[in-house]
Known about the structure:
Largest sheet: 4 strands, antiparallel
Number of helices: 4
CATH class: Mainly Beta
Order of helices and strands: HEEEEEHHEEH
Radius of gyration: 20 Å
CATH topology: Immunoglobulin-like
Number of domains: 1
Shape: elongated
Strand order of the largest sheet: 4-3-6-7
Structural class: alpha+beta
Amino acid sequence: MAQLVNKAKDFVADKVANVQKPEADLTDLSVKHLSRDSASFSGQLNVYNPYSHGIPICEISYSFRSAGREIVSGTMPDPGSLKGKETTRMEIPLKVPYDFLISIMKDAGRDWDIDYELRVGLTVDLPIIGNFTIPVSKKGELKLPTLSDVF
Length: 151
């Protein structure tokens, strides 16, 4: 009897492991807006849904890091859903206070950019499996605006 239960568990585990899952890709990070007290950045997340029906997104969690430190993190609860058999583009807004940006300016150096890592967790509700988090990360360099860009 134990062998039958183990075979059933293996069968179900194999089927669940081979279920198609949405695929995500971070494509861009850019400066969106500058204000007196902060800078707003925007990350672009493209998510492909392999199913013919929509999938609800439970939440998007994000973490923006530079120079080994977390600059900003947060979650976006219930940001919508993924359309069936399509790639959905989503914007991840990041608001960073200037005092924190100034503290990492030593990384900017002569070329006026900062090295960053953006980590995103996209939690979707898949049939049969339940909540499933797709981890996505992107490393790159972000050009900071100069005074001539601001004024």
